[in-house]
Design goal:
Elements: E1 12-16, H1 20-32, E2 43-48, H2 50-63, E3 69-73, H3 89-95, E4 97-101, E5 104-110, E6 115-120, E7 123-128, E8 134-140, E9 143-151, E10 153-157, H4 165-168, E11 180-186, E12 197-200, E13 205-210, E14 217-221, E15 224-226, E16 229-236, E17 242-246, H5 252-259
Parallel strand pairs: 1-2, 2-3, 3-17
Antiparallel strand pairs: 4-17, 5-6, 5-16, 7-10, 7-14, 8-9, 8-13, 10-11, 11-12, 13-16, 14-15
Length: 263
């Protein structure tokens, strides 16, 4: 017999990735509970991995939907997710710790002058499109801080994204409360010893591609790619915020901090 949530309990809807394990988890929750329709829910329970959570967060941004998300890992790493359990879901939702995540705003100008704007929850990265290294000028709040970075690419990461691509590129891990952004080179050739910078999150970072026609570069906002860019401006979008819910013993801010001690 299905358990019906008490009136005081948050109404939740389930969003599952297309993977078989996520679909099976959705069926298990449907048997145990009576989920609400997506439009009637107070909380959205997301079943999948980090990639599917990012996809869901972007859909929420596009729709202007500010309802909180509680993820359960039915993927691989599951850094943005909680542990998968069928039982006690109402209690977990009631006790969950809320974490606010603000996206980056990417404004990418292509060689033909057209402009593309996309949000990024983890990072905005510039990547060379050919075998030739990229040459990029770096500016912060209109001031040129590096005239030429020769590299495979460069990225700007949020604290939430600092443990993802940024970390694999040897960038710093940023606590969620740091109010900072990471500016990290990807396979830098010159200057060889530059490892990046930590910047306040109220600055505008401008990345201008030198010799853009001869050395084409693509800009990527999380999972969205814009090719043949001439210049990319990155700022923190303070007008929008997303809310992720975590079990108290599994909170994202604590997990990010502890990542610094893993070997």
């Amino acid at each position: 017999m299905s358990a019906r949530p008490a009136p005081s309990e948050p109404r939740f809807a389930v969003i599952a990735s297309e993977r078989d394990v996520a679909q099976a988890a959705e069926r298990s929750l449907a048997k145990r509970y009576k989920p609400a329709g997506r439009d009637e829910a107070d909380v959205l329970v997301v079943l999948g991995g980090d990639g599917f959570m990012l996809q869901t967060l972007h859909a929420m941004l596009d729709a202007g939907d500010q309802r909180p998300l509680f993820g359960m890992n039915r993927g691989t790493v599951g850094f943005l997710m909680n542990e998968w359990k069928v039982g006690g879901l109402a209690e977990r939702l009631a006790a969950a710790k809320a974490v606010k995540v603000r996206p980056l705003a990417m404004q990418a100008t292509r060689l033909d002058g057209s402009v593309a704007e996309h949000p990024a929850i983890n990072e905005v990265s510039l990547l060379r499109q050919t075998r030739q290294a990229a040459q990029i000028e770096l500016s912060v709040d209109g001031r040129v801080v590096m005239e030429e970075l020769v590299c495979d690419g460069v990225l700007v990461a949020t604290p939430a994204g600092s443990t993802a691509y940024n970390f694999s590129a040897r960038g710093p891990i940023l606590p969620l409360s740091a109010n900072m952004l990471a500016l990290t080179p990807i396979a830098p050739f010159r200057p060889r010893r530059w490892t990046g910078a930590i910047l306040p999150d109220d600055v505008a970072v401008t990345l201008r591609v030198l010799e853009a026609a001869e050395r084409p570069v693509a800009a990527v906002a999380d999972q969205v790619e814009v090719r043949n860019v001439a210049e990319v401006r990155v700022t923190l979008d303070r007008k929008r915020a997303l809310t992720l819910l975590f079990d108290p013993e599994h909170a994202l801010d604590e997990r990010i901090a502890m990542e610094q001690f893993l070997t």
